[in-house]
Structure formats: C-alpha cells, structure tokens
Amino acid sequence: MIDLQKGDCLELMKKIPSNSIDLILTDSPYGINFQSNYRKNKHLKIQNDSNLDWLDHFVFECNKVLKNDSALMMFSSWHHVDYFKASIEKYFKIKNILIWEKNNTGMGDLKGQFAPKYEFIFFAVKGKPLLKGKRDSDILNFKKTGNKLHPTQKPVDLLKYLINKLTDESNTVLDPFMGSGSTGVACVNTNRDFIGMELDDEYFKIAQKRIREAKDEKVTKLV
C-alpha cells in the first residue's frame, strides 16, 4: 500500500488512527532557512524552514500515531540540535543520536569553518522496539546523493538500512516531510507500506513519479 497525501502534515496526521504506524522516518525542515549556493540551478527554498514553531506539535502527533514499541527516526543538523532534542524528549525516549557520515564534505564558509561532513539522526522510541540483526555502530557511512531532486535529498540506501533495522515486511512507514519521495522508494524496495506527506506541489509531483517508477521497476524485475 502506497498512500501519498499533499498538504500540511500537521493537519493530515490528525486523520491517521492512533497507534497505527510502525515507524516514522523523516527529514523535516531544520529551521535554518536553508538555500544552497553551490548549484547553478538552485532548488526552491524549503517551506516552513524559517523557524521551529511547529516542532512540538509535530512530535506530539508522531507519538499519537505510532504503535507501542515503535520508533521515530528524524534527521537534524547541528544548528538546532538542542531544540530538536528538547522537543523529542517531551514525548519519546532518545536511545541514540546517530551520525550519518557522508562520503564528501559540504560547502559552508570555505575559509572560516571546518568542512561539514555529517548530519544527525535522532533514534527515539515509544516503548521498547528491538533492532533487527546485529548491533551496528552509531556512525553510519553512506554516500551523499548530489541533491539533484531536492536540496536535502537523502540516499535511498541509508533509508533502506534504517527501515530494515526497525520494521518487518508489510509494516507501515510514515514520512510526514516526504520531499522528493526517497523514503517511499526505500519502502517499495523493502516491501513496506508507505504513507508520504508533502506540502510543496513541485516536490509532491517528483515524489509521485519516483515512487511510481520504483514500483514499475520492481514489477519488471519480477517478470
């Protein structure tokens, strides 16, 4: 089951039954008004990235829709990690802050700043979910995507890894900030049900196309 919904996730999540989602895996706005100056053809700015006024409400809704013994996996930058941590701890127990180590550095202040090469991933739990497979390190090495479809596009392989560590096949994964649909593609590839939400019209259309192509490719491989 793939369910793509266009609109404000804070409103859309109210329609999801309580205790019905197996995993929330999302890359929300970081509250830094991000705009990459590296690409010649710049992406649209991320909506609702100018502040974090929505964050407490969002985390509350996450807790409501998640099943017991399930997890919230949420990407974050260093800029407001204290704010994210404080909000998440109101409703969840944080088990780890994982480090996604990228294969190369970002831009930033080329002469006045160390070259950025990582992002945080909050691993927060409702109850006591158990990880699948062996106990891995809290530093995850996955290549960057190049952000061709979205300014903060995440690698599908990283998302597949997290999905496989925390869910079983046919479980339901929710991404309230779907962006270009990478979590949805990862769910197609790992046989999980997926609910994706996106406010921006352009990125919603990109996500629809990517997820449809992932489904078609999977069917072709089975024939």
Fraction of helical residues: 25-40%
Gyration radius over CA: 17 Å
Number of helices: 6
Total discrete domains:
1
Instruction: State mean pLDDT (0 to 100 scale).
Output: 87
- CATH hierarchy, class: Alpha Beta
Quick description:
Helices cover about 30% and strands about 25% of the residues. It is α/β, with parallel strands linked by helices.
Question: Can you offer a commentary on this structure?
Answer:
- This protein has 223 residues and is of the alpha/beta class.
- The protein has a single domain (2-222), classed as Rossmann fold (3-Layer(aba) Sandwich).
- The chain contains 6 helices and 8 strands.
- The protein has an 8-stranded mixed beta sheet, with helices on both faces.
- It is globular.
